[in-house]
């Protein structure tokens, strides 16, 4: 028999007849002019999708198995065409992390099935049934140094440069927030003209003098907990840049809101009044004092005009989310 790589459409039609696929001779050979090389390169995805669009699952599987046998019998022709025996079998079929064996930078990782080639990294698939693979589970590509990078769960690129940028971002946002707080303090409404807004809950509950200090203490405790998580977590760089990005963005939006809207002081117990800090240098000095003290009364910083846009609430909420989510992730990983 002639080499499959030089088969004509008629010879392909004869092979289809012999294998019991005479119903598809018209479609494959007459309409789409399938010859020997294109038959060897045919994939199951080609059979399923347009323009062929076969709909009978049994025929799809049987034809794919017949092509698979043909490929095994014609390894040399496949290599001449620049194909590997499984390139045509698995093309278009997603590969899951549990189906791979690869060698990257000398480190072997073995899994269950198959044989695939991914940008110079050999992936061996040992099972012939590849229709059950989950999509998007493996992303394999090459860096300029020739090393292969797998973006798999549990192995993420720390990308320290992003963490540095997000840290610088939140650093400057906090400084800008402190300066806006100084400007807002100069615009605090007069309590005699604009008394505190009525609140049915706060007006009915007695004020707890130590509650504000306790809120700051909770924020400090959460901060230390998050620092401990960063010290122990393998993805500390990712966690830090996510926190910095979120907190910086929320505080930047808080700056805009404070500057645009001047609300009355929230309670009679607060002795707040507008205050002028003189020239620009005086404002900068006051902003630096707020910045260095993190805007907390525990560090001796007293601010006015920003109570209705609580930065304490932002910090406590974000830190609480990050601490609890990291704990949940740890529990899931060690379940």
Automatic annotation (TrEMBL):
Q: GO cellular component annotations, sorted alphabetically?
A: endoplasmic reticulum membrane; Golgi membrane; plasma membrane
- Matches recorded under InterPro entries: SAM (IPR001660), SAM/pointed_sf (IPR013761), Sphingomyelin_synth-like (IPR045221), Sphingomyelin_synth-like_dom (IPR025749)
Q: What keywords does the record list, in alphabetical order? A: Lipid metabolism, Membrane, Sphingolipid metabolism, Transferase, Transmembrane, Transmembrane helix
**Keyword set includes rRNA processing:** no
Give the stretches traversing the membrane.
168-188, 208-231, 243-265, 307-330
Q: Which GO terms describe its molecular function?
A: ceramide cholinephosphotransferase activity; sphingomyelin synthase activity
List the membrane topology term(s).
Answer: Multi-pass membrane protein
The task this protein performs is described as: Synthesizes sphingolipids through transfer of a phosphatidyl head group from a glycerophospholipid on to the primary hydroxyl of a ceramide in the lumen of the endoplasmic reticulum.
Looking at the record, the residues that make up the SAM domain are 7-73
Which reaction(s) does the protein catalyse, per the Swiss-Prot or TrEMBL entry? N-hexadecanoyl-(4R)-hydroxysphinganine + a 1,2-diacyl-sn-glycero-3-phosphoethanolamine = N-hexadecanoyl-(4R)-hydroxysphinganine-1-phosphoethanolamine + a 1,2-diacyl-sn-glycerol; an N-acylsphing-4-enine + a 1,2-diacyl-sn-glycero-3-phosphoethanolamine = an N-acylsphing-4-enine 1-phosphoethanolamine + a 1,2-diacyl-sn-glycerol; an N-acylsphinganine + a 1,2-diacyl-sn-glycero-3-phosphoethanolamine = an N-acylsphinganine-1-phosphoethanolamine + a 1,2-diacyl-sn-glycerol; an N-acyl-(4R)-4-hydroxysphinganine + a 1,2-diacyl-sn-glycero-3-phosphoethanolamine = an N-acyl-(4R)-4-hydroxysphinganine-1-phosphoethanolamine + a 1,2-diacyl-sn-glycerol
> Which protein family is named in the record?
Belongs to the sphingomyelin synthase family.
Keyword field contains Membrane: yes
Q: Name one GO biological process term.
A: ceramide biosynthetic process
Query: Main site of residence?
Result: membrane
Domain of life, per UniProt, equals: Eukaryota
What's the protein here called?
A: Sphingomyelin synthase-related protein 1
Coiled-coil intervals, chain numbering: none
User: Where does this one sit in the cell?
Assistant: Membrane
């Amino acid at each position: 028999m002639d080499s499959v790589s030089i088969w004509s459409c008629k010879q392909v039609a004869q092979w289809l007849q012999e294998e019991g696929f005479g119903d598809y001779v018209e479609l494959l050979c007459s309409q789409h002019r399938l010859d020997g090389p294109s038959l060897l390169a045919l994939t199951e995805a080609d059979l399923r999708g347009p323009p062929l669009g076969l709909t009978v699952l049994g025929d799809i599987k049987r034809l794919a198995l017949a092509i698979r046998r043909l490929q095994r019998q014609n390894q040399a022709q496949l290599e001449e065409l620049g194909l590997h025996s499984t390139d045509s079998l698995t093309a278009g079929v997603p590969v899951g992390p549990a189906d791979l064996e690869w060698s990257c930078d000398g480190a072997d990782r073995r899994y269950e099935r198959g044989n695939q080639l991914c940008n110079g990294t050999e992936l061996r698939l040992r099972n012939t049934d590849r229709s059950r693979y989950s999509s998007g589970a493996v992303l394999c590509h090459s860096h300029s140094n020739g090393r292969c990078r797998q973006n798999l769960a549990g192995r993420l690129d720390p990308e320290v440069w992003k963490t540095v940028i997000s840290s610088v971002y939140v650093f400057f946002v906090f400084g800008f927030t402190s300066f806006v707080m100084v400007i807002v303090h100069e615009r605090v409404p007069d309590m005699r003209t604009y008394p505190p807004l009525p609140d049915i809950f706060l007006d009915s509950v007695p004020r707890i003098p130590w509650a504000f200090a306790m809120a700051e203490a909770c924020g400090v405790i959460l901060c230390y907990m998050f620092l401990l998580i960063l010290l122990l977590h393998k993805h500390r760089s990712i966690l830090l840049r996510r926190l910095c990005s979120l907190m910086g963005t929320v505080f930047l939006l808080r700056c805009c809101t404070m500057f645009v809207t001047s609300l009355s002081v929230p309670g009679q117990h607060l002795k707040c009044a507008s205050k002028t800090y003189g020239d620009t240098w005086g404002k900068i000095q006051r902003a630096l004092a707020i910045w260095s003290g993190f805007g907390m009364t525990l560090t001796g910083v007293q601010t006015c005009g920003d109570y209705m846009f609580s930065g304490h609430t932002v910090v406590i909420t974000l830190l609480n989310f990050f601490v609890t989510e990291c704990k949940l992730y740890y529990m899931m990983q060690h379940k």
